[in-house]
Write a structure and sequence with these properties.
Chain A is mostly beta strands and 115 residues long. Chain A is built from no helices and 11 strands. In chain A, strands 2, 4, 5, 6, 9, 10 and 11 form a 7-stranded mixed sheet that branches. Chain B contains no helices and 11 strands. The chains are: A mainly beta (115), B mainly beta (112).
Amino acid sequence: DTGVSQNPRHKITKRGQNVTFRCDPISEHNRLYWYRQTLGQGPEFLTYFQNEAQLEKSRLLSDRFSAERPKGSFSTLEIQRTEQGDSAMYLCASSLSSLQGSEQFFGPGTRLTVL
Amino acid sequence: SQQGEEDPQALSIQEGENATMNCSYKTSINNLQWYRQNSGRGLVHLILIRSNEREKHSGRLRVTLDTSKKSSSLLITASRAADTASYFCATGIKTSYDKVIFGPGTSLSVIP
C-alpha cells in the first residue's frame, strides 16, 4: 500500500502526558500537512511542510504543539502536557506542490483521547 | 475562523435524486476543492477547480465556481446509497499555494 499512513491509529492518554504521532506520506510528495478534526466539523489546519521546511503554523495552535519533518520524508506531531480539549482526530495529508493547488491525499488519522 | 461555509448543513434525499451542496467563502482563492468523508473513514479528494475555471465534471459530479460571488456548488447526479457521506469544500488560499481551509461540511444521506 503506497498511501499515507499514520501511527498509532488510536491513542488514549492521561491529562498532562506527552504524546507523539507519526505520519508517513506518499514517497514522492514534497508537501505534508497536519489537521485536527472534531466530531461534526471539518479538518482544522495545524501546520504544513515543504520537504523539511515548516512553511506555516496555525496561529490557533498552542506552543504545546510541535511538528517536525527532519529528512523531508516522515513527520511527527508532538503534543506536550495534553489537555482534555486536545481530544480529536489528527489527520495527516501529503501532496505534490503546484502553483495552482493540488489534491491532498489523507491518511486514516490518529484518534487521541485525553482522560 | 473557517474560510468556507457549506450549505445546507444536512441533506436527505432518495436514491436516484440529485444532490446539490453549496460553498461560500470570504477571501481570494487559487482553487477550490471538494472532499468526501464516509463515516469513520478518511477524506477522499473528489475534484479541484481552479480560480480561472467556471465548471468541471467528473463522472456523476459537477462543480461550478463563481468567483464574483465567492461561491461554489457540488452537484451529484443520480445519487446512490454509497454517496452517503460528509462533503467538505476546501479553499486554496491565494497567498499560500497549497494550503487549504476546510468548511464545516454538508452531511448527505441517500435513502435507498
